[in-house]
Design brief:
The chain has about 250 residues and is α/β, with parallel strands linked by helices. The protein folds into two domains: about 1-80 and about 170-250, 3-Layer(aba) Sandwich (Rossmann fold), CATH 3.40.50.300; about 90-165, no CATH class. The chain has helices spanning about 45-50, 75-80, 95-110, 115-120, 120-135, 150-165, 185-195, 210-215, 235-240, 240-245; strands at about 5-15, 20-30, 35, 60-65, 65-70, 80-85, 170-175, 200-205, 220-225, 225-230. Strands 6-7-8-3-9-10 form a six-stranded mixed beta sheet, with helices on both faces. Strand 7, helix 7 (about 185-195) and strand 8 (about 200-205) form a beta-alpha-beta unit.
Length: about 250
Amino acid sequence: MDAPALETRDLTIRFGGHVAVDKVSCSFRSGSLTAIVGPNGAGKTTYFNLISGQLKASAGTVLLKGEDVTGLPVSARTHRGMGRAFQLTNLFPNLTVAENVRLAVQSRARVGLDLVSLWSDRRALIEKAEAMLARVRLADRRDAAVASLSHGDQRKLEVALMLALEPDIFMFDEPTAGMSVDEVPTILELIQEIKARANATILLVEHKMDVVRSLADRIIVLHNGQLVADGLPAEVIASAVVQEAYLGVAAA
């Protein structure tokens, strides 16, 4: 069997005497969307930060397509196919929407092009950036400064930047947080489009259970930094450990 697209083995991080993520072992296959849920403080975002390289693990391993990337920085993981959208936006606020996307497109192109080739292919890169803006429904805001965008539009722009990098692993940390009811469907449709790709692997941290039910092929549950449940959505949501730890319902 082929190696998982992504795997963590006994992944652990300690902050002083507090173990925020405690020996989490989990694998993620291509073509699947896994929702990561749990109560506040369960370690979900910290687990994401360990996988994507924002935090250095105290112990354990992160494997990307079977390759140990535990010691690699964020940039190296990105070049190997890992994409991350943040719970808090991570954009260039003083540049325009179009300029932000062009930078991401150029960053992806430079992986395999020298500067001469990049310049000669400038039109193709611009067209690709424009296509990304259309895809996230931001073409009409292309010349707006990012700082002037609504929170929802900034989240959509983050998705455009991640798409421009053409990752194999898509990581979304509460993508609908802070959005209005009208803005949420656009993000969910974009995630559904990514999911439709046969080779896309998606990890989604999300508190809204209706979103989880509509998107997830699988749910894993973290509680006090430990992996406490892993399975099909209906089974996991109905399990006693989730009812007690996540939903606050006492187990029978």
